Amino acid sequence: MISDGIRIAVILNGISRRKSLYYNSIHPVLSGAFPVNVFETQHAEHARHLGKEVVRDKDKYSHVIAAGGDGTLHQVLNGVLSATPAEPHMLTFGVVPLGTGNDFARTCGITASGSELVKTIQSGGKPTDIGSLICADDLGVPQQKYFVNVASLGMGPEVVKRLVGDKRLLGPDLTYLKAILAAFISHRSLQIHIKSTDWEFNELFRVIAMANGRTFGHRITVGPDAMVDDGILSVFLARDMPWWKFIYSLQLAKMGRRIKQECVQYRTAKSLVITSPTPAAVEAEGEWQGWLPAEIQVLPGAIRFLRQ
Q1: Cα–Cα distance between 173 and 184 in angstroms, integer?
Q2: With 60 as the cut, is the pLDDT of residue 86 above it?
Q3: How confident is the model at residue 16 (pLDDT cuts 50, 70, 90)?
Q4: Is residue 166 part of a domain?
């Protein structure tokens, strides 16, 4: 064992169909190098509570690793930061990508490999940006949330709603495609006022995405130039479009290409204020967050993260 003071808490998605991959291939390598405790989630939102628990004793762990998808990572991050909002550098975060989308792991060049994880831990975490999101709960009370990959409104929350309870037997590509197409048919454009320090829009939008990573929804590129350590959010703005143009644009985004259509714009921002005259939901990392109005800003280098 080569721990050198490293003590790891792994928060594992207990209902992941790839849970056995962690136990069979990753845990033996990881626990052979460092002291590791594994905590399995048992129900929705459990990863958030476990994130709070593992930092209750701030000297017990040096690393917290989410073993699951983007949603598991999101919950762990929010659990830890809600317990230690003034000390985000206390711990180093990491992810073992076992989910359906794994978009943030893909942006960071992370694979489900025990040997690569050990090497990355030995190399040390890198300063990584996160997003701060303040939006309203069901009672209209502002709540502080954090995201590490992408937050969105418009079709994004509708897709999230359709994925809840989906057994995802079709595999990630078809599972997301089915939900996205259904959302396109049922969802209507929203009147959104979005304002940054440098630009402003007040228009009907299908999708608005604030991206720290490059993709969401399983490889849909909304931040083709996004970097996780540049102190900037990439903003993807999509107005309404006919179905055939939507399918074409979706294919381009899946290929990682920039959409060159008049109905799509790419912007950057360090902070945003977003409002709407009608109810509009917000999601982040495939997790429902709340309602507009919302204040969003990037927190440069706020956490240490295990990445390439």
Answers
A1: 16
A2: no
A3: confident
A4: yes
What's at 238, amino acid-wise?
A
Beta carbons within 10 angstroms of residue 78's beta carbon: 25
* 3-state DSSP assignment of residue 139: coil
Amino acid (one-letter) located at 232: I
Q: How far is CA 178 from CA 172, 184, 238, in A?
A: 10, 10, 20
pLDDT above 70: residue 170: no
Q: Pick the more confident residue, 181 or 295.
A: 295
Check residue 94 and report its DSSP letter. Answer: E
Check which CATH number belongs to the domain holding 215 and give it. 2.60.200.40
Output the average pLDDT for the chain.
93
Kind plus residue range of the DSSP H or E element containing 291: strand 287-305
Query: Model confidence over 217-255: pLDDT tens digits?
Result: 999 999 999 999 999 999 999 999 999 999 999 999 999
Length of the chain: 308
Produce one character per residue of 30-45: b if its CB has 16 or more CB atoms within 10 Å, e if not. bbebbebebbbbeeee
CB 128 within 8 A of CB 301: yes
Q: How many domains does the chain have?
A: 2
Residue 233 in contact with residue 131, Cβ under 8 Å?
A: yes
At 104, give phi and psi (nearest 5°).
-70, -40
For residues 276-280, give the mean pLDDT: 97
Please check the confidence at residue 71 and state whether its pLDDT lies above 80.
yes
Torsion of CA 160, 161, 163, 164, to 10 degrees: 120
- 3-state SS of 204-242 is EECEEEEECCCEECCCEECCCCCCCCCCCEEEEEECCCC
The gap between the terminal CA atoms of the chain, to the nearest Å, is: 23
Do 202 and 266 belong to one domain?
Answer: yes
Residue-number span of the structural domain to which 226 is assigned: 131-302
Q: Calculate the CA 126 to chain-centre distance.
A: 18
